[in-house]
Amino acid sequence: xxxxxxxxxxxxxxxxxxxxxxxxxxxxxxxxxxxxxxxxxxxxxxxxxxxxxxxxxxxxxxxxxxxxxxxxxxxxxxxxxxxxxxxxxxxxxxxxxxxxxxxxxxxxxxxxxxxxxxxxxxxxxxxxxxxxxxxxxxxxxxxxxxxxxxxxxxxxxxxxxxxxxxxxxxxxxxxxxxxxxxxxxxxxxxxxxxxxxxxxxxxxxxxxxxxxxxxxxxxxxxxxxxxxxxxxxxxxxxxxxxxxxxxxxxxxxxxxxxxxxxxxxxxxxxxxxxxxxxxxxxxxxxxxxxxxxxxxxxxxxxxxxxxxxxxxxxxxxxxxxxxxxxxxxxxxxxxxxxxxxxxxxxxxxxxxxxxxxxxxxxxxxxxxxxxxxxxxxxxxxxxxxxxxxxxxxxxxxxxxxxxxxxxxxxxxxxxxxxxxxxxxxxxxxxxxxxxxxxxxxxxxxxxxxxxxxxxxxxxxxxxxxxxxxxxxxxxxxxxxxxxxxxxxxxxxxxxxxxxxxxxxxxxxxxxxxxxxxxxxxxxxxxxxxxxxxxxxxxxxxxxxxxxxxxxxxxxxxxxxxxxxxxxxxxxxxxxxxxxxxxxxxxxxxxxxxxxxxxxxxxxxxxxxxxxxxxxxxxxxxxxxxxxxxxxxxxxxxxxxxxxxxxxxxxxxxxxxxxxxxxxxxxxxxxxxxxxxxxxxxxxxxxxxxxxxxxxxxxxxxxxxxxxxxxxxxxxxxxxxxxxxxxxxxxxxxxxxxxxxxxxxxxxxxxxxxxxxxxxxxxxxxxxx
Length: 768
Prior knowledge:
Elements: H1 2-16, E1 40-43, H2 52-59, H3 66-80, E2 82-83, E3 93-94, H4 95-102, E4 104-105, H5 107-120, E5 124-131, E6 134-142, E7 145-148, E8 158-159, E9 167-168, H6 171-176, H7 178-183, E10 186-189, E11 194-197, E12 204-205, E13 208-209, H8 223-230, E14 233-235, E15 241-242, E16 245-246, E17 262-267, H9 302-306, E18 319-325, E19 340-342, E20 344-346, E21 351-353, E22 360-367, E23 371-380, E24 384-388, E25 396-397, H10 404-407, E26 414-421, E27 427-436, E28 447-454, E29 465-473, E30 475-477, H11 481-486, E31 497-499, E32 503-510, E33 517-523, E34 525-526, E35 530-531, E36 535-544, E37 557-558, E38 566-567, E39 590-604, E40 609-610, E41 614-617, E42 631-636, E43 647-658, E44 665-671, E45 690-696, E46 710-715, H12 717-724, E47 733-737, H13 741-744, E48 750-753, E49 759-766
Parallel strand pairs: 2-4, 3-16, 32-37
Antiparallel strand pairs: 1-28, 5-6, 5-14, 6-7, 8-9, 10-11, 12-13, 15-16, 17-18, 17-36, 18-27, 19-22, 20-21, 22-26, 23-27, 24-25, 24-26, 28-33, 29-32, 29-36, 30-31, 30-35, 34-38, 39-40, 39-42, 39-49, 41-48, 42-47, 43-46, 43-48, 43-49, 44-45, 44-47
């Protein structure tokens, strides 16, 4: 008797672990044999998001010092988060729940999550507010000093001291020496529109691309904002709660608890129009408001993990999953699917009242680690269906066909569904849709994957089976990082990448004696191509009763196989990408060739064409459209003499007659998509992607015009490397103004290009 009572208590403890610390009513309950608690499936290279402790342990493995751990946590933060207004729930949200269900917040919220992870490392933390611009940051305290890593702006800086010869700077360090630590240390990549450390850029080091260089400020924030921010900072203490996010996990749990007939499926993608999301008081679906995956496409760490989904949605968004409860009524194992049974027995493939004349009732536990956003189902033979959000204390009747409104409340992760019947309950199917954060899910990596499957107590599986299924699409890249670098392309924007049309499925079935278990999944790359992360579709875990069948697979699935034409190529673990200190490039001797270029004509979107000096301009706001001309100077030349081997660099030397009298301006170069025709205007407004730029300073008052014209060099290396390699055709260049508030201070600026002074293209090539 004592043994049976202990089993019942253990079962209810399992259910309550993610039911906000409460259990369903025990009156009349029978033991739920077959309930399997804490089902975990984890590939060896993915983060374990089941607890804050497991996150920091898995993302910092292999780190040699605290600075490396700080960067690993920072990389995890950006993999799993994007910036958007705060999520909210009554009483606040544990950061562990925010990581698993949401994945978005404003600066203070993101930094509460980050500091919650630092707390698990035993570090101190403090919030630091900026008044100019308004911003909430946080610093970590380790190794006897403070360190600033901004998961919102996506920035950190190194100081040339500390363990390992350097350490991550604190805000006070940057404020004291912003020239050295910011302005002299970082550089804007005008083509990719991100900031790199000056000594660690995505460029060629000899014959090898420095592709692991971290990209900073990838959402477009300027370095000047960092400088003004740290100089306007004020400390805000070290609270464990900020803006409704709490370090403490409380009663929330990430345990996945499954009984026979239960199937939980997480997915990495979603249709943003399904309304399967929870964001209190907001009517717009959650998504990163910086468009076109601006935050991921240049990053060599988390960006490559997220690259498979760049074209799947208009921006980073939420993901969905489902918990399905569909007991197999062909045997009495179906009783194990019930959390509570009152006056119920199994007879003739149905649940019937154990004592005639009295109704029977069963309770099913729709509990997940994730926020519930939809619910529907069917139950043949149920007279009433009710839902409880307070672990069975109170119930209210619902329409089982759609009871979304009953569960999509205050970020609920648990709902009990009670069905009462007078005669016989013959079948049940409940489907709860939940919101999960795709950035926290256990993804697969290119190459070898070792997947571990574990549960709290394997004996609880009994004679049932645990079935685990991964579904994904393998991919590959046709060009190397060196080729992407030469062409000035983003590293994680699906350039020259393809994923299979067919879905690969790996399904493994485990008995109690098999657990814990490991199995391998290989994600191969065709020979001669380069590895990319697979496009993850779903991870499914289900407990299947004897003689019952697991859920069906997608149509036309294929099994994984490594053919002789494929290799198990790998990419580095993303969390420590970018930590290696860049060695200074060995000097190489170059020779310079000058190729004459021809000023063809000035053109504008108003149809103007002129061969005189070109006074170029561009509207800086929509209000200026039609009032300020979009104009450019077209430049052509014969590049047959340009070297095709040992190409090093190229600069267009532009003669400028005068800049603007009120502000500096950014003068950019675009590569023309087709050869221009003399005397004929082109569609100027379509030529927006610059391949290089320079700053023309404010025109001196005592020099209204440069005589002779002043020469400005614009780097066009990336545009011409692909031409030199025979991968692109040169049609000419366009010179245009690039509005940039950080340069032109918001003025509508103009720049005059000389039509008569010589214009040349300088091309460097290596001599060895």
